[in-house]
Write a structure and sequence with these properties.
This protein is an alpha/beta fold and 196 residues long. The protein contains seven helices and seven strands.
Length: 196
Amino acid sequence: TPPLWTGERYAHARIRVSYLSADFHDHATAQLMAELFEKHDRSRFDVTGVSYGPDTRSAMRSRLEAGFEVVGQAGDADELLLEVEVKKPDVAIIDIRMPPTHTDEGLQAARELRARYPSLGVLVLSQYVRPSYAFELLEADPRGVGYLLKDRVSNLQELSDAVTRVGEGGSVLDPSVVSQLVGRRHGHRRWPFARA
């Protein structure tokens, strides 16, 4: 299935982005994301938020919600998948650690979303450099998939570029993950073309 991006524009005026996260509370990632969503270019992006966790009714949650055009609530993985089906985003930004175990539920949700909606771009955010997670995400089809460390989201242009690239059917891989993959592949040996 080809990506939604045709090379010129989506079937609608703005790129639809859904942020699926359990961090709709006072949390470092929420701080960064709130700042980004407050500043996003509303002429280019239509951003929805789906909280995958309890509604804490905190000031941070209210701040996050103010940055979205639409807000949804999902109590479990099935409801999260339903929210995506209803909102029909072009790109889903997903936190890798989600309830109930806060391990890799976001990665599993991303894989399920890709299986159900092959043209959906998926950008996974993680706090940790885990090449195995990146491999798992990219193994079925690397088109329209991205894996970034959460510290990259502090740069609005970098995140915007990543969302656009994933939405266009490209791949985005955090440079830290690439560095580990290259180092692992070469066993941290000297490059064969390096001078003695």
